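Anyone up for a design puzzle?
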């Protein structure tokens, strides 16, 4: 899913404009990148966690769904 699709869904669910939703997406991505650049894990609650290995490669581990995996 691309940013415009995410922003459109977020806008509809949160009752904000598409522009405000796009700004929120940008802020979340910036926060995730800032944490990863500092060598810290970055979590997307309800989705999973990004981690950076010693070689600099990123990995994503999905959060387990309760009773669905």
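Challenge accepted. My sequence:
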């Amino acid at each position: 899913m691309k940013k415009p699709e995410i922003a459109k869904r977020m806008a509809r669910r949160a009752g904000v404009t598409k522009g405000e939703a796009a700004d929120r997406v940008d802020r979340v991505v910036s926060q995730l990148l800032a944490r990863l650049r500092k060598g810290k894990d970055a979590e997307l609650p309800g989705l999973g966690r990004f981690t950076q290995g010693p070689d600099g490669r990123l990995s994503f581990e999905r959060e387990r769904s309760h009773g669905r995996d």
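A detail worth pointing out: Residues 3-62 form one domain.
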